[in-house]
Specification:
The structure is a single chain. The chain is built from 6 helices and no strands. It is an all-alpha fold. It has one domain.
């Protein structure tokens, strides 16, 4: 690492080396959101790439199967299926609608 301005090379060598083990051994509530997100990044990235690939393949297939004036329906159908899947995977579906269990 480069020494700080105004610090000689010998003073920089005498300083305590940086201990990065403190950054790794944090409790879950002490971790930064970036470090917590790293654990799930691979799955999110994979699903993003898989969704892009499947969307592109479905649109490419629709180019052969549908007339041009109907091609807009393919991304809209994919959007609807994605939203429906997300909604069904939520644990508390009533809260998403702004309701509580006693309101029914």
């Amino acid at each position: 690492m480069y020494p700080l301005p105004g610090v000689s090379h010998h003073e920089a060598l005498d300083r305590e080396p940086f201990d990065d083990s403190r950054l790794v051994d944090l409790e879950a509530e002490q971790e930064s959101p970036f470090l917590r997100g790293q654990k799930h990044f691979g799955r999110v990235y994979f699903s993003d790439l898989a969704g892009s690939g499947l969307g592109g393949l479905s649109f490419l297939g629709a180019l052969y199967l549908l007339p041009p004036e109907r091609l807009l329906l393919v991304p809209m159908a994919l959007w609807f299926l994605g939203a429906l899947t997300w909604f069904l995977m939520q644990r508390d579906r009533l809260a998403l609608l702004g309701r509580q269990r006693g309101d029914l």
